[in-house]
Amino acid sequence: MEIQLACELPRVQNMVHVQGSAKPRLVTPGEVIYQDTSFMRGHGTYMEEGVQVASVAGYVTRVNRLITVTPLRQVYQGAVGDTIVGRITQVQTNRWKVDVNSRLDAELRLSNIQLPGGEQRRSNLEDERGMRGLLREGDLVCVEVQKISDDGLLRLAARSIKYGKLSQGTLLAVSPSLIVQDKQRMHDLPCGARVVFGANGYVYITPTVPQEQASTYTVNFEEVPVDIRKTIGRLRNCIKLLAIHSIMISPTSVTSAFDMSVEQEYEIKDLLKPDVMQDVAMATVQMLNE
Residue ranges of the S1 motif domain (predicted)? Predict the structure, then answer.
């Protein structure tokens, strides 16, 4: 049995606590946040005996006089404008039901997608009959949150060429709270793969393709080169080890973990070993703090 201590790694042996910006304040349910009654109560808080108390475990956010507590772990609630990844679960009349890692399946209407060929017209009966030819159960899609109903149902849209059906890749589910909030969700990494960091916690890794071919409704059966498949597998395992060690997932952290695993000459399968996961995670944190 081969055992390697994290302290034996060259980049980790001198690791110390890095002086950085102030750490966010963490609170637990029932903990008093502020006794000043002039603050406004936001999500994750309630008033008891004239003081503001946390109702969930998370970190305190203050915007002017508004105090909120953002949970460390929560079910994806959705926000208008979010780019997310989902899986088709059901084909209905004029709409698809989509699993988006939330408490309810989202809804994607036929009228809210860009028809094949980029045609700008109203969908007709023929389009409705051919819905299963565009998207069927099990297909993965990249979509945008267009609207949130009063009952929490997410209404989706895919009216741009950057949205649509996903193919030839792998899907990984992580906690939505670990995905760094960013306007740009699709990134072509230097290692030769495209990663879609869905705001709902679904991360999709696919070979880099031209933008005009990125989102279509046809299945690409071309063989993916072995080196690209290995790159996708390494990225997938790097994202998984970051999630297991509660490290925020972003293009920077994923690229750092990928480069570190290559530098240490770890095999792709070895990245699933607990001790190797810890080594790469610690080295990634050190690299990000340098």
Answer: 81-159
Check residue 52 and report its DSSP letter: E
CA distances from 250 to 86, 198, 284 (A): 19, 11, 12
SS3 content of the chain, % helix, strand, coil (to 5): 25, 30, 45
| Domain made up of 26-71: CATH architecture | Beta Barrel (2.40)
Return the residue matching tokens 């790097």: 238
Helices (H) and strands (E) in the chain, counts: 6, 17
Distance, in Å, from the CA atom of 128 to the CA atom of 135, rounded to the nearest integer, reads: 11
pTM of the model: 0.79
Alpha-carbon torsion (74, 80, 84, 87), positive or negative: positive
Long-range contacts made by residues 251-254, C-beta under 8 angstroms, separation at least 24? 251/187, 251/189, 251/195, 251/197, 252/288, 253/180, 253/284, 253/288, 254/189, 254/195
Tokens of 46: 């309630």
**pLDDT tens, 43-93?**
889 988 888 999 988 888 888 888 888 887 778 988 899 999 999 999 998
Say if strands 140-148 and 83-92 run parallel, antiparallel, or are unpaired.
Answer: antiparallel
